[in-house]
Amino acid sequence: MYCLLNPSFLAYFSFLFMYHFPILHIAYSYSFLYLMSCAKSHSYNIEQYEAERDLRSDRGRGVDDEPLETDTLKLTDNSETDSFRSCFLSWFFLWHLIWLSVMQLRHYFFIGTLNPMLNRLANQDPDIVSEYTNAFAFTQFCGVLCAPWNGLLMDRHKRKPLDPGVSEREADLHSSVLSLLLTSLQCLLFSICASIPILPLQYVTFILQVLNRSFLYGGNAAFISIAFPARHFGKLYGLVMSLSAVVSLLQYPCFALNKVLGGDPFYVNIILTVLTLLAFIHPVYVFLHCREMETSMY
To answer: Where are the transmembrane segments (predicted)?
Structure first.
């Protein structure tokens, strides 16, 4: 028994049965590399391996110099000839600027008059005002949870293949119509709820406000990246934010008018609600543009 367990005997026994191993060559070609990989495994047969090796050798000798399909797509996507001036003077940029500026002005006026409005509706009760102020602050934190929803809405078409003859940019532009329309509708409902002087209704106003704000600024950057060349994104984004900030200075005349009306923001809210209807022009224009592109294909 000790002899059977002796290491030298085990080594000799293994040597005797080496005829089970390949003698002349292994199962794969000599150039095949046996490596350990932690990535996802790929199954190859010998025909696939030989075909890929021949293709690599032909490319090395310069036989296959034709560009790959991915290279062609990159060249097509990068052939953007629109100048910054043409983008700035386009109807897309104008209506998008109005879309952003009107809703941003509505948000600024609501936040600026929130505390006086709560004091007015709560009959100057500090406990009730504190309760609603805390609720508003909590809903602002929930904006982090609302932000991805707009992205999921705009990327819903990427789960299915593109229609024949439709580019990815055209599909993205068509998908942005619903996002723009829903953002405008959210702002209209938020403005209507803010105009109604009912205190418990302001909980709904807070939810609509933070939801609309998340859709507004996320959709702003997404639409600029879709509708305009990528090389102009930084300039156009900075320009639209700067111009919308200039438009938001109209909140100070609104504050002055609200003071003249005795601190009651009802009439100013009605004016801003009517002004919010201008935001619906943008999604309608983009929809008509997409439909015109579809009809021109046939």
So the answer is: 12-35, 88-109, 135-154, 175-198, 210-229, 236-254, 266-288
